[in-house]
Amino acid sequence: MAKKVTKIGVLTSGGDSPGMNAAVRAVVRTGIYHGLEVYGIMRGYSGMIENDIFKMESRSVANIIQRGGTVLKCARSKSFFEPEGRKTAYENLKSHGIDGLVVIGGDGSFRGALKFSNEYDIPCIGIPGTIDKDIAGSDFTIGFDTAVNTAVEAIDKIRDTADAHDRLFIVEVMGRDAGYIALHSGIATGAENILIPETKTDIEELINSLTEKEKRRKLVNLVVVAEGDEFGGANEIAKIIKERLPNADTRVAILGHIQRGGSPTCLDRLIASRMGYHAVESLMEGRHNVMVGIVNNKLAYTPLNLAVKAKQKISKEWMKIVKILAS
Length: 327
Ligand code: F6P
Hints:
The chain is of the alpha/beta class. The protein folds into 2 domains: 7-143 and 264-309, Rossmann fold, CATH 3.40.50; 144-260, 3-Layer(aba) Sandwich (Rossmann fold). The chain contains 11 helices and 11 strands. It has helices at residues 20-33, 45-49, 83-96, 107-119, 144-165, 180-188, 203-215, 234-244, 266-284, 304-309, 316-325, and strands spanning 7-12, 37-41, 53-56, 100-105, 124-128, 168-173, 193-195, 221-226, 250-254, 290-295, 298-303. A 7-stranded mixed β-sheet has the order 3-2-1-4-5-10-11, sandwiched between helices. It has a 4-stranded parallel β-sheet with strand order 7-8-6-9, sandwiched between helices. Helix 1 runs parallel beside helix 9 (266-284) and helix 5 (144-165) packs across helix 6. The longest helix is centred in the middle third of the chain and has 22 residues, at 144-165. The chain is elongated, with a radius of gyration of 22 Å. 6-O-phosphono-beta-D-fructofuranose (F6P) binds next to loops.
């Protein structure tokens, strides 16, 4: 029989993502609804180690559902990956009587939670919060929809100026290990080529496709590249293209961190609210070391070790669609 939780901690970790605030709000208010004490932990695992932990009330999360970033702040803590760091973190949680933890973050954050919960008797529930969508066990991760919409808005604007000058644009979007932002934003903006880390980038094929389009006088060309593509980001790709197609009027645009900010979309607020609610419910039901996700619009639990190991699969059909529609 699992121990009943009475005091829970919540933290946001890794890179921030729009909608994290909505998830924190849901955790705090669901916890209070059930008579639990809820503690906010600042700067992810760093705040756990530094004992930067405070009791939250319902009012602590007022007026944040619409805000990007995270009121709990984010960090990528190196010390938490050392046994000493985790020991100090555990002692700090114990000093507040915290007996359950909700970790909102991406794969690095879940790896930390796994290590921690294997060593100490504090159940952890993960909520996928990352713009990269590189976690298995959920159709959505909090922040992805906002980030991809930000990218689409920016690429649409780039297309206007590309069209006015008959230019070739290489647009770099975020995604160190994952190409979802590139794939989704690329399809949605009619990009001619999309380069992502999950598939081998065939430079010859890219050059051939651009040359062929030039022959057909299709002058506006958008190449969307994920920052983690094996050839490097937009600057590297542009270098190769300029060498091979010196007559093409080529420009580079790197969207960068604007993709991480901004007010979350309705979808991100909704999934954050649902996941936050279910994270607390799962702790109360005695679950531990699982991620709460949403699959086919239903709640789904995935063991944390699988969520980080088994990445989502890029659909081959989607890649085919890119080729057909951009002809
Ligand atoms: O959070 C994910 C992400 O935005 C990646 O897409 C990107 O590679 C990375 O974080 C950037 O991290 P930082 O803000 O620490 O440079």
